[in-house]
Amino acid sequence: MWGIGKPKSKLGKWMDKRGLAQKDLAREAKVSENTITKACTNKEYIPRQDVMKKLLKAIRKVDPNAKMSDFWDM
């Protein structure tokens, strides 16, 4: 399996639970795959406000009740 033992952020763990691929979220949110990788692996990373809104809009297509605070400490 891929990713065993790698650090995961709250977003990365959420995506793993749902079996979602980073490239699919990147495409849906219209952000780079590098941004998604950083958001899924770096627990300290907090995206810019505009990127966060794009990500949350894409995430809500899977989980309509998702909130920013579910993924990033603000």
From TrEMBL:
GO MF annotation terms: DNA binding
InterPro entries hit by this protein: Cro/C1-type_HTH, Lambda_DNA-bd_dom_sf
A Pfam short name: HTH_3
All residue ranges annotated as the HTH cro/C1-type domain in the record: 13-62
Protein name: XRE family transcriptional regulator
Native organism: Priestia filamentosa
Taxonomic lineage of the native organism: Bacteria, Bacillati, Bacillota, Bacilli, Bacillales
